[in-house]
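Replying to the earlier thread about multi-chain prediction with a worked example.

Input:
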Amino acid sequence: MMRLPEFSYLSPVSVGDAVKLMADHGPVAMLVAGGTDLYPNMKRRQFEPSVLVGLRGIRELRGVRGSSRTGLTIGAGTSLTAVSTHAEIVRHYPGLATAAGLVSSPQLRNMGTLGGNVCVDTRCNYYNQSYEWRKAVNFCMKKDGEICLVAPGSTRCWAVSSSDTAPMLWSLGAQVRLAGPAGERLIPIGTLYRDDGIEYLSKQPGEILTEIVLPPSDGWRSSYLKLRRRGSFDFPVLGVAVALRMEGETVREAAITLGAVASQPRPAPEAAGLLVGQRLTPDVIDAVAGAAFKPGKPLDNTDLTHPYRKKMIRVYVTRALQSFANGESPPADRPNHLAPAKSSPADRPNRLANGEAPPADRPNHLAHGQPAERQVEDK
Ligand SMILES: Cc1cc2nc3c(=O)[nH]c(=O)nc-3n(C[C@H](O)[C@H](O)[C@H](O)COP(=O)(O)OP(=O)(O)OC[C@H]3O[C@@H](n4cnc5c(N)ncnc54)[C@H](O)[C@@H]3O)c2cc1C
Ligand code: SF4
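Result:
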């Protein structure tokens, strides 16, 4: 059984106190909200803070304020269950309610928060493993090691942004409020993310995400579709977040953002641009799905094969747009019986024990530090 290491838990009751505690303790401290991602990571020694600043006692971080007419402000400490069932969100920002409702399992959604989901760590088959597993493959640069095991010649980490709500919030034009020692700032959610598997957030470690601010819904419709192996719970291996503002049957504005295809959510502006001024005819949908397929560059470091995940971008964008055209709720999360099987990463230490080549030696994309995306053609 994996156990938590020792740490001190501090429990501020205001954002100001939490900011001060983070500043006082510096790099040994981390923030914890629901703890549904952070505690498992601590058990695997991916995070080793000696101080945790808990956000659960801070009342001002919880709740939803405003209206769809003026815009909604969601406290970062609001649970995912509350977000997914909030009447105004379900009615006017349905893609967000769907995305929040598809995160992990009911128990984890009761504990997990929207802020924690926006800030959740990036993932990789070679990183989300026990300490012993990682040690057996000599670690990687995201924690304790020197090189990337997905692309050993690479100077960066390619771990995957795996938040369900982040791409949807990006498509909805959300902003996030951050509080830190230098005061508060409100930034577009897109600028919170960096295309780097290790430094995946642009905020300072001591800055606290306090609020997620949604613009007025103003005729926007939204939907989120998630590809994962198990329908009960699993991280996304592809998320498709679409927001459209329609006038009658004509699209006036559009945003498409892909999740789980890069180290940050990946917008598809070219594809979205093809929708503007158009009706959702089969030809238009086909052209948009083809264009959305291009910016998605899944790598060979999550569940399911990356060529399959790449192909599914086209399929999921088509499904999302068809559902808008038909005026239906899209099928958010179809079981994926047809997905090609891939060996579980948990098998890999056994391969080492059996004297087989470790994953770092696999020939596919590793020799030249080329991420596996290069193997997937854009067609
Ligand atoms: C079995 C399992 C399945 C999961 N499946 C999914 C899934 O399908 N989709 C998905 O998106 N996630 C999934 N998760 C991850 C996790 O449950 C969610 O991302 C959850 O929303 C995290 O929220 P939290 O409040 O528990 O965050 P925590 O675990 O408390 O924190 C996560 C990270 O965010 C930081 N943080 C938290 N709050 C703030 C804040 N207000 N300001 C700044 N930094 C902050 C923490 O320091 C930490 O780095 C899964 C986890 C498990 C264990
Ligand atoms: S992408 Fe490379 S460096 Fe990043 S977690 Fe995976 S193996 Fe490690």
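Residues 334-379 have pLDDT under 50 and may be disordered.

Feel free to reuse this layout for your own posts.
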